[in-house]
What we know:
Blueprint: E1 15-16, E2 19-20, E3 28-33, E4 38-44, H1 48-63, H2 65-68, H3 71-87, H4 89-100, H5 104-122, E5 139-147, E6 150-154, H6 160-173, E7 177-181, H7 188-200, E8 207-209, H8 214-223, E9 227-233, H9 236-247, E10 252-256, E11 262-265, H10 271-283, E12 295-299, H11 300-315, H12 334-349, E13 353-356, E14 360-361, E15 370-371, E16 374-377, H13 384-387, E17 394-400, H14 403-410, E18 415-416, E19 418-422, H15 426-435, E20 440-443, E21 458-459, E22 462-463, E23 476-484
Parallel strand pairs: 6-7, 6-9, 7-8, 9-10, 11-12, 11-19, 12-17, 16-17, 19-20
Antiparallel strand pairs: 1-2, 3-4, 5-23, 10-22, 13-16, 14-15, 18-21
Amino acid sequence: MKDLAPHRHIDLKPFIDGAHVPTGNDAAVPTYDPATGEVLAQVPVADAALVDRAVKSAKAALKGAWAEITPAERGRILFRVAQAIRSRAEELATVESLDSGKPMREAKGDIETSARYFEYYAGMADKLQGDTIPLGKGFVSFTQHEPVGVTAHIIPWNFPLVTTTRGLAPALAAGATAVVKPAEQTPLTALMLGTILKDAGVPDGVVNIVCGTGATTGAPLVAHPDIAHVTFTGSVATGISVMRSAAEHVASVTMELGGKSPVVVLDDADQEAALEGTLKAIFTNAGQVCSAGSRLVIERGCADAFIEKLRARVRQIGIGRGIDDPGLGPIVSLQQLQKIDQIVTASIEAGAGLLEGGKILNPEGLGGWFYAPTLLKAAKADMPAVQEEIFGPVLTIQIADDFEHACELAECTRFGLVAGIYTADFSKAMRFGRSVSAGQVYINQYFAGGVETPFGGTKNSGFGREKGLEALRAYYAVKTITAKI
């Protein structure tokens, strides 16, 4: 049994100007253990007044101690943050698993990735240099990079710490400051990060963390006139609302709005590799992944044998508490569990064939929110299981007549975040990669790439890029200085 004590020592109050501060009200939002349905903690809610205080703290820090620190020293600070995260990896992973429900192996991977973000961007802090522009003998013209200002980070519940660090690390590397609003369902590791940052030498006010609901805390943060950039990960509907609010004060935005990503398997593919990739693509974090491969588009010639192997493997997936590292953990909330069940039911009523699962589970000894790993066979492309982001352990199977038909089916939704293909034909893989509307394409491996590779969407999956060098562009402004000589 894992030691569950770490979460009891987390200071749950907002982290503002380098310290956890009282909210001055009694409002709180519970965060649950999804495996049992039990309340882990009551997290104090930051209202609009506290959000304003956090933004003002970040604005003051932008022109204060943070501006006085050299880029090289910023890099050293970020590297110390990475080391500190690694030194507390077991504790952070336990809290992450407990709060989100994800299996421990996945939580540990997320913590290492979080450290890696700070490590990667630490190396970039002193390399954000401008250009000289040749205007002729009578002029000197050059560009310099300046921090964009105070940035707001609206964090989703499915990858709490790793999504926080994915935006925060490049923002700090560029010299910007930040206010972070974790999801109310999974705020614990983000709150722990405040102390880690302070102990690593991040000056007070550079990073502030406020918790609460979207309406109470997130909305006033996004609407604050001193926010220069909003980094948002979440649903399309909420993303549209965030964009409208940010536009009122002309703040830039990075939007990652989900997906309905295809995994294409052709007849000539390595079938075992494709099988492993398909399972990983949909059942990682119980399918609660924006880039999940939630649609299997498979060529008819290999479909029957592949699906039978897939069904056999799905039946073997064990269910349990995240901290016990099961094959599949719980769904993050009762609300999300009900959404999954509603879409699956609607899809079956619309003609989808149920091959495996398709029901809410109640594992013995646990009172939480579990959904059976599910396989649906789509009868047509317009049914809910094909078009809607279910965000659960539900794989929809579409049969393609040939390669061209597979490419057509891959494009049949309004999303464009990720697409994957398994094939031995390099030419087909490249043709698919060039033609498909997706921010990233995986070939013969799913979830390929890493911290170094840009990540973002097209179509309704959003715009802007996280990760890699591209992410830095959101957090600095380019100033051009030209002089006559």
